Structures are given as C-alpha cells and as structure tokens.
Amino acid sequence: MAFMEKPPAGKVLLDDTVPLTAQIEASQSLHSHTEYIIRVQRGVSTENSWQVSNFSSLFKISALSLPLPPKKLIGNMEREFIAERQKGLQAYLDVITTHHILSNCELVKKFLDPNSYSVNYTEIALQHVSMFFRSEPKWEVVEPLKDIGWRIRKKYFLMKIKNQPKERLVLSWADLGPDKYLSDRDLQYAVKLLSSCSHPYIYKITFATANESSALVIRPFSEKGTLKDLIYKAKPKDPFLKKYCNPKKIQGLELQQIKTYGRQILEVLKFLHEKGFPYGHLHSANVMLDGDTCKLLDLENSLLGLPSFYRSYFSQFRKINTLEGVDVHCFGHLLYEMTYGRPPDTIPVESFPPAPSVFVVSVLESILTCEALKNGMPAVSRLLQMPLFSDVLLTNSEKPQFKIPTKLKEALKISKECIEKRLTEEQKLIHQHRRLTRAQSHHGSEEEKKKRKILARKKSKRSANESGEEHSAKYSNSNNSGASSIPPAPPLPPAAPAPSTEVPTSRPDASRGALLSSIQNFQKGTLKKTQTCDYSAPRIS
C-alpha cells in the first residue's frame, strides 16, 4: 500500500498540550511604532524559553471578546502611553494563554512558538490522503473539514464511496504523538484491529491504517454531531473555535439525558478497562450521538501516543497517575458540562451551582473537589453504583466484541505503563515548581519583609552592642598593657612593728598560788571608811 511506504520527514514528537506562558519583557521604538519583546516559556522549565515580538497575528482571533488595549494616533510614542499599553497587552496575553481552547489553537501556537509550528499540516495530510487514494480508488474526497477539531496535527475530510454517492464518511489523519510506545509493527496491527471492535457504545470504524509516522481512520459521518454539539447547539461542520469558544446560550441537558448518557459512557469505560485497552481521551467532542445513544470516538488516539484534551488539568494532581484515573477525571469534566452547559471555570471546583439533582452534585464532588483530587479518583465500578446511575435501565442488547491477541495485550500493557510513567514525571516537575514558587512568593510577601526588617534591626543592635563591648575590652587591655610598660616604683621601707596588745600569760599553778596568798594576807583595817545617806524614811513638811 502506497500510504504505508513514505512517512514525511521532520516529524516532531512534541506535546502540544504543555501550556505556553508569555511575559512582555521590554519595548523598543522602530520606525514610528513600538515593538514589544515577549518571553515565551513552555511548561515549568525556565531553560525552555525564547523570545517573540510581533503581536499583529494574534489580533486575528475573533472567537472571544478579548481585552485589547486602545490605540493612539497622536502621542503613541509617549513613555506613559507605551507603559499603559504594555499592561493592556500583557492582560490580553494572559487571557489567551490561560483559556483552555484558545491556548491550543493553531494561530496562538504559531505566534508563541513559530519554530515548532512552522509546518503546514493540512498539506501533509493531503499528501497522505492522496497516496492512500492511489491504492484505494473506491474512496473520494468531497471537501476538507477545516479546523473542526482542536488538534493542530489532526486533519479531517468529508468522504464518500464512489458506488454509494449518498453515504457520507469522515476521514481523519493524525501525526504520531509523544506517547507512542508501541513498535511500528504492533501499532499497525492494533490500528487495523479497531475496525473489528463491536460495542453498543463505541462508534464504528469503517477503515483504519497506520505507518511509521501517522495514521488514517475512516468513520461514518453523523449529521447530528457529537455530544458537545448537542450541549452547545452547534453545527458539526463548523470550526472548533466558532462552535465552542463563545456560545450564545448556556444551558445544560435534562436530568434523564445526564443519567442515561453518563451511564452509557461509564459502561464503555468499564469495558475498555477490563480489556486492558488504554483510552484517556474522554471529552464531550469525542462522544458521538446516534439517536439516544452515546458512542465513544477516537480509540486510536492512545495507540498513536496523542496527548489528552484535559492533560493540562490532570497533570497538576499527582494522585491522577493511571489512565483509569484519567478517564474518571475526564468523566467529571464531561458530567459538569452536561449539567451546566459549560466547562468548569477552575479545577478543583470549590462550590457547585444548583443542579437538577443532588445526586449529580455528589458524583461531581467525588471527582472534581479538592479533597477528591488529593485522595485519588473513584473507580468506574463505584460510580456505576452511585444513585445517579444505578437505576438507569440500558435497553441495547448488542453483545460487545473486541478480541485482542495475548501478545498485543502485553504490548498495550507496556505502552500504558510508559504513558503513565511520563505523566508521573511531568507531575513531579510541576509539583516541585509549585513548591518553589510558593516559597518564593511567601519570601517576597509584605509580612515576611516586615519580619526580616525587624530581625535585621535586632541583629544590627546586637552586633553593635557586641562590638561596643569588644571595643571596651580592647581599651581596658590596652590600658593594662600601657601600665606595665612604666618602670616599677621602688619598694616602700618596712613598717615598724606594732606594739603587742596581748596579755602575757603565766602558768596556771603560779596564778593559783598568788590568789591564795592574797586571800590569806587580807586585812580589813586597810579598807577606807564610807558614809551612807539614808533617804528611805518619809518626809513631813
């Protein structure tokens, strides 16, 4: 087959879902106009960054009412006006790079990263389709379906079979992605096997083939469109941005539709998980409507290694580290969209608007709240047992059939593990970057600055006191050393001995004899006479 023979050169295995951030660094005047220099960064690594400068191509985006700053004919080179306009342009960039749909559109990617997105993928797709038609002449292109999908490297064409001119089909061509871990042989076999899959909630594949760099899949075209088309009341053939970026009316589905569609989608996820077939690409535009039945699209995406539509969301949470967990998280987004008619503003969701049933909110809380994202996703089997879905009766009696050979099943298992490993590594880098950013933000807060100022003052006072004490000690030491250098004074003459005040003591025997002699020789006549005046008698005057 000619399609299998010649892959295009220069294939890039780049993850297009990794967010690009843009920061205006400077401005310069060039020929009476101002050019702004923008620093663009892919992901969390500052090493993966570059500069761009031309804003004009971004102003072509008309899908949203964006906050463009006003222009000025006179005085547009004044410093104040340039500074004010730079602030406005930065706000414009922030809106584009944080909007989930706009940030993934080709126009934005080509502006922010012109080197990675310089290839014309529509021309490459046409080359492949032309080579395919050489070996399969029964097919014929009716018209290209421009930009009906969100992927830059995936293109669509409306087809027909020559001998069945009224029947319409859709051909999709896709380049291989960064999560392609199957060998070329296993990939080709697995893609061809998809057309043999039969399940009431999987959309039928008419034809599928792959080579070393891309794949081509043909399916029946549905005039009714996808579940996303139903929610947004859009026409299936319109461009993705026009259909979903700025809906005129926001309205969720009826409760019974939510219950039935949700149950059908959970049943097919359970089937794929039990088969060991990796999916990871659930969103409302990948669910085709066939009457009142939901049917899953794009089973080939995981085989081709394409990144998920919601990857920039679940890569922020380390507990969502398996493809089964990814499917459940994506189901939470889809259920929110079916309920409220729009995607959630932020993840995690802090509070939910009023819903048709409290059972809807209980399912959403088990998937999209902060607590759920910290603890991990519930299993599909648990969701099926919750009151919102447990009482839904499924009327379709078609028996599912999808036989996967043992060798291919083992290859799919290894591929799934590799996909999960790359996700885990990316989550680890994001987690480390978030911790570093949080620490830097805390360090630069006003409260921390005040604390550091107080500590610096205390430290300076303490060091001043210590230096003062040290100076005094040095001064004292210098005085002592100066005194020791003076010649010593001559010694004073010795003082005369002080007279003794001690009573001379004699021996005890001599003292006793003297006392006895004094008593014996005592003479009463030697005593002097004294006169006594008696005043004790009473006086009478």
Automatic annotation (TrEMBL):
Listed PROSITE patterns: PROTEIN_KINASE_DOM (PS50011), PX (PS50195), WH2 (PS51082)
Alphabetical keyword list: Actin-binding, Cell membrane, Cytoplasm, Membrane
Signal peptide (residue range): none
GO process terms (BP): early endosome to late endosome transport; endosome to lysosome transport; negative regulation of monoatomic ion transport; protein targeting to lysosome
Transcription among keywords: no
Location within or outside the cell: Cell membrane; Cytoplasm
Pfam annotation, one family: WH2
UniProt cross-references to SMART domains, sorted A to Z: PX, S_TKc
Protein name: PX domain-containing protein kinase-like protein
Gene: PXK
